[in-house]
Amino acid sequence: MGHPFADPSLLRTALTHSSYVNERSDCDMPDNERMEYLGDAVLDFLVAEWLFGEYPTLTEGEMTNLRALLVREDTLAQQAHATRLGEHLLLGKGEEDSGGRLRAHNLCAVFEALVGALYLDGGMDPVRAWVIPLLRPELYRAMRDQAVRDAKSLLQEWSQARYHVTPVYETIQMEGPDHAKEFQVQVSINGKVWGVGKGRSKQTAAQEAARAALQALLQK
Q: What is the reported pLDDT for 40?
């Protein structure tokens, strides 16, 4: 994580599952549930601050959607798995035997708890230094996918409102070897072609065609 903890007990608490505490009557240390709660709030703020500062053209709705994608359980569990946090969890025997180290809920919880521990130990700077590089590729994927959905949905909404029809996508050309094919797709409305796009998959080419069609229609 790149952060030497001034208070190592915070790190230990973040890695302690409730099952570990419950199975040990002599255990005087807390589990990570309160720290998870704090980390969840810190993550929400951090991602909101990051999106607001780096992407001034995003709308409130776009930022809200992107933040939800970045801090959802699946995303955080994937990051926890990639950084092998599950291997360091303190688990009770029952939780261990039932696959608790790979359970998405546990992985998400330990990620959030570690964010809380970092914040308590060093403030927002170490949290930013650890979290943003991990989530940046996820943000790029989410922004790309969001842009794709918006282009196709906007074209469909425009077409249905204006002509009461759905745009039709057609693959008009395929080039290259099997491992590096390039597709060309056109999109038409009421029989008239409005956009053509290219891509390494039919879906990507269709997305580009939708963007081209929107540009042509807006200039009409």
A: 95
Residues 73, 3: contact at Cβ < 8 Å? Answer: no
**Helices (H), ranges, the chain:** 8-14, 18-22, 33-54, 60-71, 73-82, 93-97, 104-122, 124-163, 202-218
**In this predicted model, what pLDDT tens digit does every residue of 104-126 receive, in sequence order?**
999 999 999 999 999 999 999 99
The residues carrying an active-site annotation are: 40, 112
Please give the CATH architecture assigned to the domain spanning 8-146: Orthogonal Bundle (1.10)
DSSP-based three-state secondary structure for 200: coil
Ramachandran class of 189: left when φ > 0, alpha when ψ lies in -120 to 50, beta otherwise: beta
Q: What residue has token string 């890695």?
A: 15
Contacts of 10 (CB under 8 A, 6+ apart): 35, 117, 120, 121
Q: Which residues of 22-53 are buried (b: 16+ CB within 10 A; e: fewer)?
A: eeeeeeeeebbeebbebbbebbeebbeebbee
Beta bridge partners of 199: 183
pLDDT tens digits, 49-84:
999 998 887 778 778 888 988 999 999 999 999 999
Listed by start position, the domains of the chain span 8-146, 167-218
Our CA angle for 43, 48, 53, nearest 5°, is: 130
Contact (CB, 8 A) for 134 and 83: yes
Topology (CATH) of 167-218: Double Stranded RNA Binding Domain (3.30.160)
CA angle 170, 154, 69 (to 5 degrees): 105
